[in-house]
């Protein structure tokens, strides 16, 4: 496994970083987090038209770039640096991976070109009240009536669910758990924004009442599709967490160089130096874990579930530890509303919980490692 990025991938990183620096300064992050959708539609369109980021993982014959998890992970990491407000994780990771995993050529031709060009935003609704993130659908059912598929049930904690143009829903039918496509303006669909700790990441509760839907793939493939989606989502969330931690490290180091106490910069004190060194180790260790998971995803390795779970657990925990240390070293300014440290702290905490807590992922790792070889 080659653990280095190519010149083209590093160029992608540079281009994305420059783009985000222009469109996602802190004042814009704060403005957008107070809006219902959490993102600027014009910037999303520009991102698709000029950079083609929405279509990175979409096959070329369907309007995309035909790239893979490495390139998408680079973008996710850079977006974590700026807390970029856009439905990238929900649309370009969850939805794209769900459609590709379904193996339905007709649905791919229908759904993926709109995503690739930045016209369609999408998400996957799979979490149900009181059930683990990775549990198959039990309280959302699909039925056939008068030649139409209809959905009934509730999904919660749906990423960008209140405003997505397309919602892919896991639901249980006669064949088992399947994946179904629902238009964002479908009859019988009620979407309620969920207030959370992290205002830069929008979640919603979706209620379906005889809501028209269309099957995506086989009617019994939902559990397999969901497992694939969560592996990729965990990997990208890990990459994003690296970006969050890297930004906090840079901000903190700059602060301790400039902040003078007792006649000298506080960065000259050994205790502060040790704290910054620990933050650096956390960031680089998280980077290694995230990049390993990205390469596993790019190689479609059978070890992806292990790599993704490990990366998600470690990287989000590392981002939280770095965020905590950053607030401590920033001092009084670190706990003010005006300083962005609390927004990165909130993002780190929400990432720990999104798509399953770190404890859930570590428990899953233990179970997988305990399985007999070849099981």
TrEMBL record:
Residues 6-118 form the Acyl-CoA dehydrogenase/oxidase N-terminal domain. Residues 124-203 form the Acyl-CoA oxidase/dehydrogenase middle domain. InterPro entries: Acyl-CoA_Oxase/DH_mid-dom (IPR006091), Acyl-CoA_Oxase/DH_mid-dom_sf (IPR046373), AcylCo_DH-like_C (IPR036250), AcylCo_DH/oxidase_C (IPR009075), AcylCoA_DH/ox_N (IPR013786), AcylCoA_DH/ox_N_sf (IPR037069), AcylCoA_DH/oxidase_NM_dom_sf (IPR009100). SUPFAM superfamilies: Acyl-CoA dehydrogenase C-terminal domain-like, Acyl-CoA dehydrogenase NM domain-like. Gene3D superfamilies: Acyl-CoA dehydrogenase/oxidase, N-terminal domain (1.10.540.10), Butyryl-CoA Dehydrogenase, subunit A, domain 2 (2.40.110.10), Butyryl-CoA Dehydrogenase, subunit A, domain 3 (1.20.140.10). Pfam families: Acyl-CoA_dh_1, Acyl-CoA_dh_M, Acyl-CoA_dh_N. Belongs to the acyl-CoA dehydrogenase family. This is Acyl-CoA dehydrogenase family protein. It comes from Actinocorallia libanotica.
